[in-house]
Protein: Cytochrome P450 family 8 subfamily B member 1
Amino acid sequence: MVPWGPVLGALLVVIVGYLCLVGLLRQRRPQEPPLDKGSVPWLGHAMAFRKNMPEFLKQMRAKHGDIFTVQLGGQYFTFVMDPLSFGPILKDVKRKLDFVEYAEKLVLKVFGYQSVPGDHRMIHSASTKHLMGHGLEDLNKTMRDSLSLVILGPAGPRPEASRWHEDGLFHFCYNVLFKAGYLSLFGYTKDTEQDLLRAEELFTQFRKFDRLFPRFVYSLLGPREWLEVGRLQRLFHKTLSVRENLEKDGVSNWIAHMLQFLREQGVAPAMQDKFNFMMLWASQGNTGPTSFWALLFLLKHPEAMQALRKEAAQVLGEAGQSFTFDVSALQRTPVLDSVMEETLRLGAAPTLLRVVHDDHVLTMASGEEYRLRSGDIVALFPYLSVHMDPDIHPEPAAFKYDRFLNPDGSRKVDFYKAGKKIHHYTMPWGSGVSMCPGRFLALSEMKLFVLLMITHFDLELVDPDVPVPPVDPQRWGFGTTQPSHDVRFRYRLRSPE
Structure:
């Protein structure tokens, strides 16, 4: 009999030894960026990076400058920290830096969805058709009605709605936006009460998945957590199955358009179910957290709340007293637009990644040239290099509701770094080929929610002096950040004037 225990143990030692050797042997080649492999073989700087991503990158920039390569869990990432040098990376006319390859691997791992040729372009095409112009206006109307349903209930305002209710602000925002977004995109049955109960149950499971998501991406889950992720994936695949959607009315044209493409490509229904799970997370994973930050900043800055309520009264007029106001008003809210852009500047912290195909020379704004190695990943972290740059945004840590307004009330788009006008002065949605295709829908959802809350409800923090909570360190690099803990608030429906 073969003693498999010792054999497998020896094989494991060989594999680990090989992985460590690969990391130890790598040396910086001529013209490459500074290389910092860290002190731990293979892992490199992974632990420090995961513990506090912004602080780690600050230290690396202070040590190496605006471009450097670090080892993170066996993979080499080249971070470019100078926003004036972003252009060649985001435009990439030579097609040497690939976003799609990394994205396809990620969605397969996280959602179980195996991409088909052309579906990345299809998602952008469907979003252009249905999430802009008349298509977006129709979806905004559906979203407005769904928000009304979720907040007020199927029968409309109850007498107790005018009494004070207390909740966690993060939970409230995430819960309302998720349920309204889910119902708006994936439709209703004939039983509205049951739809709301299902949406509530789905949100509970969604939050379980969302909490595990960052460590899932980094493959840092324990055995029981891996089992839980598998259970949650199967649950969402079943709940969002195309077979179940056939029994619903009002499935959005956006979702229907994309599923039609998959059917035409011969994609099996089971894989379409996984696609739906991916789109649910992509569309609802950031709107609730962003709305939390927006309302919290407004509650902490009365002058901002006052300016926004004044604008809402002017734009909505008497129609603002109804939950069914004309959604075209969203096009006439410069103060709200500035509030949301400032919220996203402070709260959105995505990492933009590109896989290097073939050795590639990057020319920095300074004129220096660096050779990027094939197989490495180029990474941009705009939160630190753009959003928090005091040259671009003076007092970057402060919330200034009018930061993106000119004195005449128009939108401010002129920002500068080192005396040069900068194109990418905020990047909450990514940029280039990786720019979020659903950004117009997401922004409309959040604006609708904030408008409804500030015009129809009295809002106050339970403790007006409570500090803005720090960011949960696990959420850096994954879209909108989330707070390390919730903040209690009170709300009540205003009486009609």
User: Anything to note?
Assistant: The chain is about 50% helix and 10% strand.
